[in-house]
Amino acid sequence: MPLLLLPLGLIAMYFASSANDARAKGDFEEARTKNSLALSMIIGSVIFGIIT
């Protein structure tokens, strides 16, 4: 069952990395958006893990 959470984790890592890149460029609004998406993926992964 842990492999079912892998896709959400990979997506979260992508958004977190994109947020870091945006922050480095000074685009704080984009960084905030990407961080929110990453957090949503992490929360979804945890909830899915608890359910299964």
Automatic annotation (TrEMBL):
GO CC, any one term: membrane
Sorted UniProt keywords: Membrane, Signal, Transmembrane, Transmembrane helix
Entry keyword Transmembrane: yes
Annotated InterPro entries: CD225/Dispanin_fam (IPR007593)
Main subcellular localisation: membrane
Subcellular location: Membrane
Superkingdom of the source species: Eukaryota
Pfam families: CD225
Signal sequence range: 1-18
Family, per entry: Belongs to the CD225/Dispanin family.
Protein known as: Uncharacterized protein
Source organism (scientific name): Mytilus galloprovincialis (Mediterranean mussel)
